[in-house]
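To whoever picks this up:

The nightly regression suite flagged Toxin-antitoxin system HicB family antitoxin as changed. Nothing in the input moved, so I suspect the structure step. Input below, exactly as stored in the fixture:
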Amino acid sequence: MSAVGGSTSTLRIPRALLDRIEQLATVEGLSVVEFLQKLLQEEARRVRFAAVRQAYAQLSHAEMKEYREEARAWDVTLADGLR
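Regenerated output under the current build:
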């Protein structure tokens, strides 16, 4: 994971919080910046999947049935050997 290019800024946070971030980053073998980037990516992924779950929850029974049927139809392509 590379550091974000461009200009930098200062973020004022409590020392105890920075200590925790540094400790966890060290455990992961990352710099503080890399660790924060990783956390942001994970949070963005969590938010995306929550939106998908919410969209599925709003489907009607008929729409969900249609989705599952189409997904099953596409599943046969998994064994076609193509990548």
